[in-house]
Specification:
alpha/beta, two-stranded antiparallel ribbon
C-alpha cells in the first residue's frame, strides 16, 4: 500500500509518526479538512501535471486553484493534468492519495507560495484516507522540492 511506502520514506526525517490514517475518506480538500479537524486552506493538496512528458507535482493550499497564465509562464506549456488512470504509473500514488513523498524518481515536486501563510499544513500520505502534519521546513525537506513557485490564485 502506498501509505506504507510514505511511512518508510518519512522515516528519513523522523516524521513517520505524524501520519494519521482515517476510517473516512480524505480524498478531497473538504473531506481531508473534516477528517483532520482544520480549515480547508491548510490542506496541502498535491496536483499532478504533465510537463515535457514527465509528471510534475505542485503542492498548493486547499483554498486556491491553478492560475493557467502563471503555470504557462513557469513551465512554458499549458497546464495538463495527469489522467487518473496514469497516476500510480507516473507518480506512484492513487487518486486521492497523491502526495509529494515516495514518488517515482523522474517526478519533480514544487511548492506553491499559497502555503507560506501557514505554519503547519496537511498533505496526503499516500492513500485516500491519510494525512501528515508538517511545518513548511519539514514539507520542503521531505518533499525534495525543487523550490517555491507562484502558480495559484484564490478560488472565486
Amino acid at each position: 500500500m502506498s501509505v506504507e511506502l510514505v511511512r518508510t520514506y518519512l522515516k528519513n526525517w523522523d516524521l513517520e509518526d505524524r501520519i494519521r490514517e482515517f476510517d473516512v475518506s480524505s480524498a478531497t480538500v473538504e473531506l481531508a479538512a473534516e477528517a483532520v479537524g482544520c480549515e480547508p486552506a491548510r490542506i496541502a493538496k498535491t496536483m499532478s501535471f504533465l510537463v515535457d512528458g514527465k509528471a510534475v507535482l505542485i503542492v498548493l493550499a486547499g483554498d486556491v486553484k491553478i492560475d493557467n497564465r502563471k503555470f504557462k509562464d513557469q513551465f512554458h506549456t499549458k497546464a495538463a493534468m495527469v489522467k487518473p488512470e496514469q497516476l500510480e504509473e507516473l507518480v506512484g500514488h492513487p487518486m486521492g492519495g497523491v502526495c509529494p513523498f515516495a514518488v517515482k524518481e523522474t517526478v519533480e515536486v514544487y511548492l506553491d507560495d499559497s502555503l507560506k501563510r501557514f505554519e503547519t499544513v496537511y498533505p496526503a500520505a499516500g492513500s485516500p484516507s491519510s494525512a501528515v502534519k508538517l511545518n513548511l521546513k519539514e514539507l520542503e525537506q521531505a518533499s525534495g522540492s525543487k523550490g517555491w513557485i507562484d502558480v495559484s490564485k484564490m478560488r472565486e
